[in-house]
Amino acid sequence: DTGVSQNPRHKITKRGQNVTFRCDPISEHNRLYWYRQTLGQGPEFLTYFQNEAQLEKSRLLSDRFSAERPKGSFSTLEIQRTEQGDSAMYLCASSLVRLTADTQYFGPGTRLTVL
Amino acid sequence: AQKITQTQPGMFVQEKEAVTLDCTYDTSDPSYGLFWYKQPSSGEMIFLIYQGSYDQQNATEGRYSLNFQKARKSANLVISASQLGDSAMYFCAMSYSGGGADGLTFGKGTHLIIQP
Fold it and tell me: Chain B within 8 Å of A103 (Cβ-Cβ)?
């Protein structure tokens, strides 16, 4: 399978714990995006990378959220001191940036439940 | 700021009928892209179709077509000959191609149910 993969698919944690999610993009894609989707809403953009550079992070929800893409391949999204309001689906997408269309392909998501 | 509006929270359609899902957008940027994604109950977002703001012709992909009316700022998705497997959430989204944040802005979605 050469699509975007995310691990774990489900995560249940207690309030106050730290969690980390991993995303592996489509291999030739140079851009990687993170989104959050809460129940009944469309995905909400959080941050993105072009290769290893994080080009936009002002949309991260708080300073408890951070993302890395150290070698320009896979990426991790970490949430520190989780709160119940962090419960959501976290989606990763990747794209191959061109001059025009920049279609993002999504992974299956990680569903986070904070107890 | 960009905004996507999908005014149909849910739709019921008979199998084999054509379906139109509405999407209007608001942006002051001249360069942008419009996308439609399908999200089945499994949760994965599936790319369906793309329309660039400068494209002269409406985009088509198999049974999907995008009715792009730039002056009205609308980008409706048309599904021809609907199938039971088309039942899902459908999201309209916009990208900003002018630099800065390149994430997609999504609407709230339309829940489409195809009835046999």
Answer: yes
